[in-house]
Amino acid sequence: MKETKTKENPEQQEMMDHQEKLDAQEKLLQEEKLEEMKTLLKEKQRTQELLCKKLQEKEVQMLQDLKRLQEEKDEQTLDRLEELCKEVAEIEDDIQILLERMEVMQKDEMEIEIELAKKKLELTNKLKAMQEIIQKVKRGAFNTEGKKQYLEQELDKIRKAENDAPESFLKAKQEVLDKFEEPIETEFQCSICRELLVMATILNCGHTCCRSCIVKWMEEKNNCPICRTSITSQFRSSVMDNIINSWLEIKRLR
Ligand SMILES: [Zn+2]
Ligand SMILES: [Zn+2]
């Protein structure tokens, strides 16, 4: 066919050749392009695969991260929970301590009330006892006051008699001495030293002693040397002291 064509039309033949060349070139180009495209495609595929792999890796990483985060979160939550539990326990301890304190305080309050009631009763009893003693002492003082006045009157009589006449004085004095010696020496005798009272001290039971005698006595004992009553109080009696001093003065004049 070619031969024929060439023979028939050289221009046409040339054109056809050119066309062929063009076709071949185009084919080559297309093939190249195809190859290029294939390469590109392959590359794209590789890239995609790579990307995919990377994505998968990333996913795995993310999953791991997520898991780790979850665990951390759990751990943190656990830690926080533990802390909270501790705090709650501490608060509970505090409350327990407070409750115990309150209980103790209530107990103390009750004890204090009981103690106060006891003290009140004790004080009331003491007050009663003291009032009784005061009355006793007052009565005693009244009696001794009377005696003192009487003694002083007698002493005056003696002094007067002394001035008036020695004989009548001596007689009067002897009368007083005879009359009072026994009762005074007995009534104003110390229960401990058996001598006339020195700084007469009345005990709550009504018995009397010298101040120094009872102080010494109480270094060892705490009850009356006569009646054994427990000593709860003592009173100094200046009235008794005065009577004794007056009596001693009378005796000195003898
Ligand atoms: Zn005495
Ligand atoms: Zn007594």
How would you describe this structure to a colleague?
With 254 residues, the protein is mainly alpha-helical. It has a domain at 119-252: Herpes Virus-1 (2-Layer Sandwich). Helices cover 81% and strands 4% of the residues. Strand 1 and strand 2 (208-210) form a beta hairpin. It is rod-shaped and about 220 Å long. The protein binds zinc ion (ZN) (2 copies). The site of one zinc ion (ZN) has 7 residues, from strand 2. InterPro entries: Znf_RING, Znf_RING/FYVE/PHD.
Could you give the order of the helices and strands?
Answer: HHHEEHEH
> Biggest sheet: strands, sense, closure?
3 strands, antiparallel
> Would you identify the regions where 5 or more consecutive residues have pLDDT less than 50?
1-6
CATH superfamily of the domain at 119-252, please?
Zinc/RING finger domain, C3HC4 (zinc finger)
Helix fraction, binned, reads over 70%
Strand order of the largest sheet: 2-1-3
* Level-1 CATH class name of the domain at 119-252: Alpha Beta
Mean pLDDT: 77
Number of helices: 5
Structural class: mainly alpha
Termini separation (Å)? Answer: 203 Å
Strand content: under 5%
Estimate the global geometry from the Cα principal axes: rod-shaped
Topology, number of strands = 3
Using only C-alpha atoms, the radius of gyration works out to 68 Å
Protein name: E3 ubiquitin-protein ligase RNF8
GO molecular function, one term: zinc ion binding
InterPro entries: Znf_RING, Znf_RING/FYVE/PHD
Keywords: Metal-binding, Zinc, Zinc-finger
